[in-house]
Amino acid sequence: MLRAIVLTAASLIAVACAPSTSNAEVSTGPKPFAVTEIATFNEPWAMTFLPEFNQALITEKGGKLILWESEGEVVEVKGVPEVAYGGQGGLGDVILHPDFSNNRTIYLSYAEAGEGGFGVAVAKATLGSGVGGPELKDVRVIWRQVPKVSGRGHYGHRLAFSPDAKYLFIASGERQKFDPAQDMNSNLGKILRIFPDGTVPKDNPFYDAANPVKSQIWSLGHRNPLGLTFDNKGQLWNQEMGPRHGDELNLVKRGANYGYPKASNGSHYDGRDIPDHTPGDGFEAPKAFWVPAISPGGLMFYNGDLFPKWKGSLFIGGLGGEALVRVKVNGENVEKADHWPMGARIREVEQSSDGAVWLLEDGETGRLLKLTPTKP
User: Fold this and answer.
1) What's CA 368's distance to the chain center, in Å?
2) What pTM value is reported for the model?
3) Model confidence over 79-109: pLDDT tens digits?
4) What is the DSSP string of 324-367?
5) Is 154 a catalytic residue?
6) Structural domains for the chain
7) CA 233-106-53 angle, 5° bins
8) Active-site residue among 97, 154, 222, 245?
9) Per-residue pLDDT tens for 56-78?
């Protein structure tokens, strides 16, 4: 039986602010949504709804891909590639090909081991039926982080298709190595643009036939991007964890440099200063930042009708901040709108076709939660 929990604790609402300025927040009234606990998973990381509304694919960091059905059993999908589980690494994002209803193609990101250490791989596969249930078939890796490095942090690896379905964008973390984010011979600390089959468009901003890695780059200077989504105007947004504070929400532009590790509104964990973003520094400043940090997780653009006042907003899950954050999009700028404490680390935010908002909590007993409007 589903447990409906109407949350009435005070929420926080951020005052309107110009891009990249203050982080002031003021208290406000109760949350405008009820929370229904749906299921529990072991370290869930990402989810995507299938065209059939009552089904979703959910990844667990340890390496399991789960097919969830609202009225059926929760079953494991077989054929998932072996993942290098540990630290921040494991099975990551899952998205559908835009023509999934016809081709049944999905895309997965995951950490893998190899020469030099660890890195992310992105694979495409067909979701089919096997002898024992759902199964991935024709699994093929189409992209890898270059180079593989030591350590198991800052993989990033969020995925998003462009609205015209022509391009796949990949958010790639700098793997806690700092300098690769500015290295054009590495795809670490970058957002990449490729075709769905893994080949590289020749109109990418840094295309170089002699340098296939550089050719993938759409933007650079990113740290640990854990959210990637398009809005209803076709603009690409990403959010990423800053170093010590300075978490960012960025409007991702072709060929832009977002500054890390040369510019950030946070500082290094050992106390060393990083110059703040300033006009004329040659870097693209975030449209919003958070000090203190919220440790952003998933990112979702809301275009549903169930919450009319939320239409045209970005939603960010807070990990360390244990919150759900709403940011209103105004053209190329944003306005901080709501900051609701959730009492748990929020790893993923998604929207279903009926306009409900869904959350995945982080951790070994992470819950799948459904948000619907509070009854008047």
Assistant:
1) 17
2) 0.93
3) 999 999 999 999 999 999 999 999 999 999 9
4) EEEEEEETTEEEEEEEEE-SS-EEEEEE-TTS-EEEEE-STTEE
5) yes
6) 3-8+35-291 (2.120.10.30)
7) 70
8) 154
9) 999 999 999 999 998 888 999 99
